[in-house]
Automatic annotation (TrEMBL):
<keyword id="KW-0645">Protease</keyword>
<feature type="domain" description="Peptidase S9 prolyl oligopeptidase catalytic">
    <location>
        <begin position="455"/>
        <end position="661"/>
    </location>
</feature>
<dbReference type="InterPro" id="IPR029058">
    <property type="entry name" value="AB_hydrolase_fold"/>
</dbReference>
<dbReference type="Pfam" id="PF00326">
    <property type="entry name" value="Peptidase_S9"/>
</dbReference>
<dbReference type="Pfam" id="PF07676">
    <property type="entry name" value="PD40"/>
</dbReference>
<protein>
    <recommendedName>
        <fullName>Acyl-peptide hydrolase</fullName>
    </recommendedName>
</protein>
<keyword id="KW-0007">Acetylation</keyword>
<dbReference type="GO" id="GO:0006508">
    <property type="term" value="P:proteolysis"/>
</dbReference>
<dbReference type="InterPro" id="IPR001375">
    <property type="entry name" value="Peptidase_S9_cat"/>
</dbReference>
<keyword id="KW-0378">Hydrolase</keyword>
<keyword id="KW-0732">Signal</keyword>
<dbReference type="InterPro" id="IPR011042">
    <property type="entry name" value="6-blade_b-propeller_TolB-like"/>
</dbReference>
<comment type="function">
    <text>This enzyme catalyzes the hydrolysis of the N-terminal peptide bond of an N-acetylated peptide to generate an N-acetylated amino acid and a peptide with a free N-terminus. It preferentially cleaves off Ac-Ala, Ac-Met and Ac-Ser. Also, involved in the degradation of oxidized and glycated proteins.</text>
</comment>
<dbReference type="InterPro" id="IPR002471">
    <property type="entry name" value="Pept_S9_AS"/>
</dbReference>
<dbReference type="GO" id="GO:0004252">
    <property type="term" value="F:serine-type endopeptidase activity"/>
</dbReference>
<feature type="signal peptide">
    <location>
        <begin position="1"/>
        <end position="20"/>
    </location>
</feature>
<keyword id="KW-0720">Serine protease</keyword>
Length: 665
């Protein structure tokens, strides 16, 4: 017979065991979680295939910035090692081909320019290898590990005065400004070779042309690289593949002659061929285009266009170690999958796909690959891809995801007024009743030539956690559906895309998902531009948030970085004024807009300058439509300061809550 005290003890123990087995209750994601999210970047496989180095970016809330340190994970996934831990940040980790060193770039010890540092894999502190006086864009080890090829920018002598007052910008280029870079004076990027033993640097190229993307031939005798050597490279995108001997004073040889773009050269393991990406179009403006995988002999000649009939963009070409196949990432209808081409017969095989997104590709022996993979519930992690099966290597985001309750994500296809079939993605708050109509936000992607995929989407997850259904629309102009679908909006902005957005809105209303009286719309960049086009076309949206957008397109000529696009696609404003005015209808017909709209922009944005948001804000303010303008100090087109990123999402939710949620909620 059990006495009372023993019974109480057993009951208490039973209760504790039950508590231990009960999983912690999860909560909706919120904007503060943005500070906890880490980002993996630039994975590199060691020469022996046993380790993968990568960058891991974290938020330093005290300094309000992101900082990247270097890590390694073993190929079996059992061991993870942090290589650096400094406030200066490190990037571009590279293994020396002999496996003895890991190099990286950092502006440590108060340096104003990034330098190459060497870390001996046997142990010890990293040592600074270079003392560069100018900006380094890229570097790559020679096959014998004795030299490093560098891409360096010409020095900016105008900014070397003893006082802090910069000399005036002297501009005479056709393309005279660019986002993040600012005003563009004369100056180019050139190739150099650094000898590790002597610490001497030889100049390979000079002149007024840029040379980028160097890759060593397997025997170390040549570099392949990319350059546009037309009379005025600012006026076209006619890049070609060149090769040059690595001896001082060598002359370069042009391999490709396509009038469009040739980029991303990669040598075959035997050194006999070079794979690269070639534009579909031979024109001088290539935004509405998709890269084609090409292979050319090392001496030139007619290339073999392996993916010409695929009608999908391919990227990240990588030779398999045996040189018999080339792996690629393929963008296709809301996903990016891994495929490969056989050199013998040109046949294509899909290696692995599904409703997810692959974003990196590096070759290992035996036909295996390193890749990076994200799905709607998981931020990108590193995976080993063995016989077509992904095996997870990193678990960076486990702690981030553990307490969170995320939106459910599904795809749907809508039909536009003109009959177009459009692929979309729907985010619904967790634990939502299936028969409850929700306030709904259409958050529109930029580009326009990009696509929303079945990948982890932080912004849409945060909006959905606010109680909203969130819709991502792959309107015409997006990629992943073929070249004709992408080019459908050429010189016809704000027409078919708006039809596609409205068609998606009709769908979610008809299906009882969206409350038709509580729909909002927003986006950044071309997503902001389409927000403006949509609210000037239809009044069904009760709130809008337009970020980094424009409407009076005529006023963008000369103040942003797209002059070449404008003159090619729309014609010069003084010759084709009617076309420019037609595409400016959100501003010129602003009195049609009834939607309360929040406008946002980065102060230093040269991609879509603040004028585009300022003009629309002023127009709605004059018309008495509720509006507000937010300018993020010191920011370019992409908002990079963590507190500003959080602020943007908070303001989205505050604005939409004000107009889309009844007072009683």
């Amino acid at each position: 017979m059990i006495n009372n005290s023993l019974l109480i003890g057993l009951l208490t123990l039973s209760s504790l065991v039950g508590l231990a087995q009960t999983p912690a209750k999860k909560r909706p994601i919120n904007s503060k979680d943005m500070y906890r999210l880490q980002t993996i970047s630039d994975p590199q496989v060691s020469p022996d295939g046993k380790w993968v180095a990568y960058g891991l970016s974290t938020v330093d809330t005290t300094k309000d910035k992101r900082n990247t340190d270097l890590w390694m994970v073993s190929w079996d996934g059992n061991e993870s090692v942090q290589l650096t831990n400094t406030p200066d940040g490190e990037s571009k980790a590279r293994f020396s081909p002999d496996g003895k060193y890991i190099s990286f770039v950092s502006a440590r010890q108060g340096a104003t320019k990034g330098q190459i540092w060497l870390m001996d894999r046997r142990g010890g502190e990293a040592k600074k290898l270079t003392d560069l006086k100018t900006d380094m864009d890229d570097y790559v080890w020679s096959p014998d590990s004795k030299k490093i090829a560098l891409v360096l920018r010409d020095p900016d002598y105008a900014d070397s005065a003893k006082t802090k007052v910069r000399k005036p910008y002297v501009l005479d280029r056709y393309h005279f400004k660019a986002d993040m870079k600012g005003y563009l004076e004369k100056g180019s990027t050139h190739l150099y070779v650094f000898d590790l033993a002597s610490k001497k640097m030889d100049t390979l190229t000079t002149g007024n042309f840029d040379e980028t993307s160097p890759v060593w031939s397997p025997d170390g005798s040549q570099l392949a690289f990319v350059s546009n050597r037309t009379d005025d490279p600012d006026r076209n995108q006619n890049t070609d593949i060149y090769v040059i001997s690595t001896s001082k004073g060598a002359t370069m040889k042009q391999l490709t002659t396509w009038p469009g773009a040739d980029n991303n050269p990669i040598w075959s393991p035997d050194g006999k061929r070079i794979a690269y990406l070639r534009s579909t179009s031979s024109g001088n403006f290539l935004m509405y285009d998709q890269p084609v995988l090409a292979v050319i002999n090392r001496d030139g000649g007619e290339p073999n266009l392996l993916s010409k009939t695929l009608d999908r963009p391919v990227r990240n070409p990588r030779w398999a170690k045996d040189g018999q196949t080339i792996g690629v990432l393929v963008q296709d209808d809301r996903q990016t999958y891994v495929g490969q081409y056989a050199l013998a017969d040109g046949k294509f095989a899909k290696v692995v796909g599904g409703n997810r997104s692959f974003s990196e590709l590096e070759a290992l022996s035996g036909g295996n690959w390193l890749t990076q993979l994200s799905d709607p519930q998981t931020p990108a992690e590193l995976y080993a891809l063995e016989n077509g099966n992904p095996r997870r290597l990193t678990h960076v985001h486990d702690a981030f995801l553990a307490p969170l309750e995320l939106a459910t994500v599904e795809g749907f296809t809508s039909k536009s007024k003109d009959g177009a079939q459009v692929s979309n993605i729907l985010f619904k708050p967790a634990n939502t009743s299936t028969n409850k109509k929700l306030p709904t936000i259409f958050y529109i992607h930029g580009g326009p030539v990009s696509q929303d995929e079945f990948a982890f989407d932080l912004t849409r997850q945060l909006l959905s956690a606010g109680g909203y259904a969130v819709v991502a629309v792959n309107y015409r102009g997006s990629n992943g559906r073929g070249l004709d679908y992408t080019k459908a909006i050429y010189a016809d902005w704000g027409n078919k895309e708006v039809l596609d957005i409205l068609g998606a809105a009709d769908y979610v209303v008809d299906k009882g998902i969206a409350d038709p009286d509580r729909m909002g719309i927003g986006g950044w960049s071309y997503g902001g531009i389409l927000t403006n086009y949509t609210i000037a076309t239809d009044t069904r949206f009760k709130a809008a948030a337009s970020g980094a957008g424009s409407s009076l397109q005529l006023s963008m000529y000369g103040i942003d970085q797209y002059t070449n696009q404008y003159e090619t696609e729309l014609g010069a404003p003084w010759k084709n004024t009617d076309k420019w005015l037609k595409l400016s209808y959100p501003f010129l017909k602003a009195d049609r807009i009834k939607t309360p709209t929040l406008f946002m922009a980065g102060e230093k944005d040269f991609n879509v300058p603040t004028a585009g948001s300022e003009q629309m804000f002023q127009a709605l303010r004059s018309l008495g439509i509720p509006t507000q303008l937010i300018i993020y100090p010191g920011q370019f087109h992409g908002i990079s300061v963590p507190s500003y990123q959080k602020d943007r999402v908070d303001r989205y939710l505050q604005w939409f809550d004000k107009y889309l949620k009844p007072k009683t909620l």
